[in-house]
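stage 2 :: seqdesign
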């Protein structure tokens, strides 16, 4: 038996639900969820940009052309 363990020194135990380095096991899932939310937001803004010239669809949404384009041009991370 090694003296490291024989002298009463033990390795730190990891708590359940934690990965190496202190990261939560779900941190990867949260990152993927954030990327998916960004992708959805980008698609919604691209769709809004496409209908910006259709006054009937904009009226259904209650937006003016300028409002639609302003929202469509907002960066996806906001």
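stage 2 :: out
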């Amino acid at each position: 038996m090694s003296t490291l363990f024989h002298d009463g020194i033990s390795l730190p135990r990891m708590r359940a639900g934690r990965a190496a380095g202190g990261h939560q096991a779900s941190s990867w899932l949260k990152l993927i969820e954030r990327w998916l939310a960004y992708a959805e937001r980008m698609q919604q803004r691209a769709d809004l940009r496409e209908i910006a010239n259709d006054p009937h669809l904009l009226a259904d949404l209650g937006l003016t052309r300028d409002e639609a384009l302003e929202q469509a041009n907002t960066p996806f991370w906001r």
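stage 3 :: structure notes
- The longest helix spans residues 27-50.
- Residues 47 and 72 are 8 Å apart (CA to CA).
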